[in-house]
Amino acid sequence: MRAYLRWWHDRSIRFKLNCIFLLIILISILTLSFWGIRTYSNYSENQADQSTLQMIHQVESNVDYYIDHLKDVLYYISQDSEVEKFMRMNEPEITEEEVSRIDKTLSMYTDRNKEIMGIMLVNKSGAFTSHDMNRITRDSLVEESWFQDAIKAPSETMIISNPIGRNVSTSQNYSSYDVLSLVHAVADPQTKEVTGVVLMDLRMDMIKSIFENVKLGKSGFMYILDHNGNIVYAPTNDIVYRIQGKWLPDGSQGSVTQQIKGHAYRILFNDSETNKWRFIGVIPNDDYQRVITDIQLYTFIVTFITIVLAALLSAYFTGTLIRPIRKLMSLMSKVKNGELNQRFVAETKDEIGQLGNSFNHMLEEINNLINVVYMEQKKKREAELQVLQAQIKPHFLYNTLDTIGWMAQEYEADDIIEVIGALTNLFRIGLNRGNEWIPVRDEVKHAESYMIIQMSRYMDKLDFKFDIPEHLYHYHVLKLILQPLIENAIYHGIKARTGKGKISISAKQELDLICFRIIDDGAGIPPEKLEEINQILRGEKMREDHYGIGLFNVNERIQLTYGTAFGIQVYSELGKGTTVEIKHPMVQAMKKSG
């Protein structure tokens, strides 16, 4: 024993933890498995009974619905004016004209309900007429038991299963087991006196199809008994006729286990309140045991898999000591690649947690330095823009353009007036008093002014269309984001194609974004060049000198202001045209630059 303890003490901590962890898991799983199988055996039998009873109830509902529908048909027949007229006749014979008229009425119902084999009308005088049914002998039909029973209960529709011994036959060759009869008395609407009876024979095909679509276990079956204990419907099975009614307990629902031909069967039943029928399901107990056996097999498989997984988890658990260090190394690698938004989440306050906190502090300092540099560069560009604006002398420019406009108006040069007006708007909106954000209305007007100027040069070469919803006009966007892209569409798309081209500028709201699209039907962009342009726009590649700056400048301004989730995406197909899509956040109030 001491030698074993010494051997155990000399093992590594990882080995000890693995052994203890696996032992605890093994004892727990085996205990739960054996107890669970025993408990589940009882539970599964109860669940199987409940499931079977629910299935029986569903079949019962389907059959009741089907019978109720046919009862309604029988009721409509009894209320038909021609039928009521026939029932009030006192003569034992009816004319051929009356027979034809009634047969036409009955045919209407049989044509619409293919399960109806035949319909017979019998009044109290003994006169009868039918569709596809005949009287076998000359004996009066009013003496038939089904006629008398219907008269005694005029408010009910009687259901007769296996109708044998009747003085009635049908023109179709069916056995009594394939027929179900419905009988309903007809009463005078004024006196409420019974004047006759309607008999309707039905095929059992629909009921058979309902039962054929139901499977109880692997070899179970269902059948129906009427209120007298007679079989209404049963599949071809010799077990049915060996089941004795006294085995079934009293009540509208229940179950019992009985031995039949040396095998145990589970018998479940449910009584229908609508038709007074008893729906019975029979399942061999072997089906139950087969499920239990399968569960035992699955339990052992799951136990084995769980033990294997426990071994893997044990190895994983012992490796958790170095996992924080590996995580920190992974974060450092990402930071090396430029992902400065990474942070280490310290779960402990040990040395590794302190190291992680120092790493987070270092990243915050780096981000602060980057922001300082960014703000300095931004202020530098704004200062340069202000210098440029000061050099332009906007008031002097407006006055000069206004003078030129009056001179053009004196000479009635309308086209020159239009171009000067567009140029004035172009400068006014572009300067915008030093503001970086302008309303969508002004941005669109700026683009329209640019297009008017371009149309004076490319009137035969270019057409354009704006489609901007008015509800977007009050939102604000970075200024001068449309004009550079329209310029690209003209010089790289429309000019490179043959014939007249068209540029469409549209916008729509997508959630909390404004999505602008500049679409041209120009020459398009080769796939390799298109992919390179989109990589530059996504920041995956540096821009080379042979590319212009307009498209990338707009993209950079948007991303520097709002982040990389916004910006420009280019779609194009060579020879068919190009679509440039701008995603810009919806800004309610105008901001000042800086």
UniProtKB/TrEMBL annotation:
The enzyme's E.C. designation: 2.7.13.3
Primary site of residence: membrane
Domain Histidine kinase stretches: 478-588
Domain named HAMP: residues: 319-371
Record keywords, A-Z: ATP-binding, Cell membrane, Kinase, Membrane, Nucleotide-binding, Phosphoprotein, Transferase, Transmembrane, Transmembrane helix, Two-component regulatory system
Membrane topology designation: Multi-pass membrane protein
TM ranges: 20-37, 297-322
Compartments (UniProt record): Cell membrane
Catalysed reactions listed for this entry: ATP + protein L-histidine = ADP + protein N-phospho-L-histidine
Pfam families hit by this protein: dCache_1, HAMP, HATPase_c, His_kinase
This protein's name: histidine kinase
